[in-house]
Amino acid sequence: MPTPIDGFYAAYLTATAGQGFALIECTHGRIVGADATGTVFDGEYTAAEDNAFRVTLQVKSPPNVRFIQGGNSGPAGDITHQEFILPSDFYKRDFVRLDFGRGPINAKFVRIRETVA
To answer: How many domains in the chain?
Structure first.
């Protein structure tokens, strides 16, 4: 049975050095997605306190991608692991602040549709 987070999302991302866009799917505890630079997201989510979700995410960027927080992935590309709490109503908020290792990102999530069970 789907959880309240299960669905397809457009993510509009803003940070100190730029903006980005990603498509993300959340289904049965898994998160997968990609952005226009070729960066891919792969991770998991579980229930957390206060009706929120704990997210663990691997972010894999191809070589020489410019990060929206500043800097770039370099000639070998870049892989990071991120952990954060996502409020259960994240896609109903104007934006959600995500604190990543390179710096914060403001994300506006738009739910495209629910995942079909």
So the answer is: 1
